[in-house]
Structures are given as structure tokens and as C-alpha cells.
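Below: protein 1.
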Amino acid sequence: MAKGKRTRPYGLSIRMTAEERKAVQKRIKESGRSQRDFVLHALLSIPIINNYGLQSLLPEIRRVGNNLNQIARSCNQWKHPAYVEIVAMRRELSQLWQSLRQLNQEHL
């Protein structure tokens, strides 16, 4: 059959290490599918989840964690955290929660 008349005229090639190839071949064998069917199924049926938005929230999460640690340290030393610190922490947690909810809505 001439290449121009194929129903699937496009190919895809990837490079991998020997260990990766061995693991892929094992999974293909376990699936009972041909290599082409296995790869197409994996590429077309797995939902795409973009977690890059989470990377932008990491500094904010770290900042909230540091503030929580400072409040916990203060409580453990039998000192009461200042009301202002608690209000600030609630505000930061609220903003973080809003950002996480927005990010989650974008992925639905």
C-alpha cells in the first residue's frame, strides 16, 4: 500500500532510556494491547492536568506555613499570639483558599 493512501499517515517517535523502555514494554505486555493501541489509549484517554498554577502558589503556602509556625511557637512558650497576628493569618489563609478554588475551577 502506498504511504499516501494510509488511514494513519502520521508517526510519533520518542527517546527513552533502557530502563524506561523496559518498564513501558512491561506495561504494554500487561495491558494485552498492541504497542500502538496502548500508546494511543494512554495519550488520548488520560485527562490533562496542568499544575503550573500551583507553582505560583507555593511561595504563598510557604509564607502561611511560616506564620503558623511562629504562632505555634508563641503558644508553646505560653505566650498568647497577638490578635493582629491571628487576623492576618486568617486573611492570608482566606486569600490562599480563594486562589486554590479559582485554580480548581479552571481545571474543571
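Below: protein 2.
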Amino acid sequence: MQVWPANKIRVHLGVALSFAALGLIGALASAWSWPNAVVGAVVGAVLGAGWYLWMAGTYHRRRSLVSTPFPAAWRQILERRVDFYRRLPVDGEARRRFEDDVRIFLAEQNIYGAGQGARQLEIDDETRLLIASSAAILGHGMPKFEWPRLRDIVVHPRAFDEDYASEDHANITGMVHYQGPILYSERDLALGFRRHDGHNVGLHELAHVLDMADGHVDGVPIGAAWASSAPWLEVITDRLRKLRTHRYANTLRDYAGTNEAEFFAVAVETFFERPHKLRDKDPELYAMLRDYFGQDPGAS
């Protein structure tokens, strides 16, 4: 995510100044008296300032946020729980940007526990940081990508069912509603960062968000250069057929064969969790994900 995109800021400032200038020119060009001309100029200035604060305010808040030291307690959690972060050079630009992405995500997203009143799940920093780290991992090679805002993230204590109840038979570890919240099982979120078995619900559900961001749930993520090209569509069709006939073993887990959207989400999990395996077993799919995410986790 961008902290201070200079080009965007200049555009917004230019629009704001244009409002002010138009207000002044309009006032002076009219037959108004000087008091009315002053009022017109003030109105233009107010509109311009309002536009600038509305459009550029996010980046001012981000710049203020990252100007403070990253919390030492948060850094300790990331070092202990997030392998991706731990592999980044200490005191390097990549680690600093990861930390910035984490705290921007936490500042701009609403994360809270399921339930109400005394029965509402209390969310600790570790759970919040694992969710934010999922976003920072996916976006690490796409510094200009912006996660959709105003999407609630609701954390359940463990797996839940279709009625969002955490019963013994429940097996849903995460879910994304098209225009609603992201749901996570706290237990399974933690396991995903502990096991490294190609199943990470933090990455999985945010991969769905990438897929949905263009208005379609079809396994094609937003902004992919190959999104509308025949090769990617051919890859999805071919791999789904192989998964459904059990001829794509030991690469992606079987759940990837559910549909195009789940194929992409599982492929993303595998790309980050077991990159060497995916690169060796399916170099074509690996290369497409490498180009999209701007990362090559299998190179290390």
C-alpha cells in the first residue's frame, strides 16, 4: 500500500486549487459587489479544501501513522509467528514496508470478535497481526495495490457452520461474502501460520478478496495482465479437469477442484506456503502467480 503517492497528491492538490481559482474568477467576473465577490472566493476555497481533505486525507493519516516507531511488542509477534516476515532482512526497506502495510491495514480495517456483549470474542494483538500479515504477504510485491476499505473482518473462536455457529460438526474455517464481511476461525488462522502445509486460511480468504475486487467471482484476480488472456483460462480449465479426475495429485489440495474461485485461492496458498513444490510440479501456474504477485518465493 502506498503511504504517500506523490503523483496522486499533486493531482488532488491541483483539483483543489482549481476549485479555489474558479470561485475567485467567477466572483470577479460577475457584476457582484465586492462583499459578494469575497463570498464567492471563500466558497471556492472551501470547496477546494474539502475536496483535498476528502481525497488526500487517507494518505496524510498514513504518513502520520508510519512516522511513529513500529511497536516492539508487535515486532516480537511477527518474528515468532510469521516466517515471511522473519526472512526479510532486518533493518531493510522490505521489512520496513511490511511493517507499514501491517499497521496501515490494521488502522483502516475493522476487525472484531464474533458474538455480542459479554459473549463477544476478545481479539488479541496476535490474531489481528496474523490477519494483517496475510494482507501484507499478498501485497508485498504490489506496492501500489490498495485493499478495499469498509469491509468488516469478523473472527470466530473456531470453525463454524452455515449458521455461523461453532458447533462440533462445523467445518468452515473462513468465508468471504461478496459485499459483506470476511469471516475467520481464530484457531484455524493460527494453525495456518504454524503448520506450513499449504493450507493458510488467512491467505485463502484474502485471495478471494483479490478475485472479487473486479466485480466477478471467477478465479481471475484484479489487475492481472493475463486476466483476460486465453492462457490463464486454459490453465484453470485444464487444472480443474485434472483435479476432478484425480490426475493432479501432490500439487494443490483437492478443494481447489471445487470451482474457479477456490482454484485460485488454493493456488495462492500453495504458492506462498509450498513454492518449491508448486514450481517443480506446475511451473506454468507458478510463473503466472509469480508475475502477478511480483514475488518469487521459490527462488530462496
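DSSP finds twelve helices and four strands in the chain.
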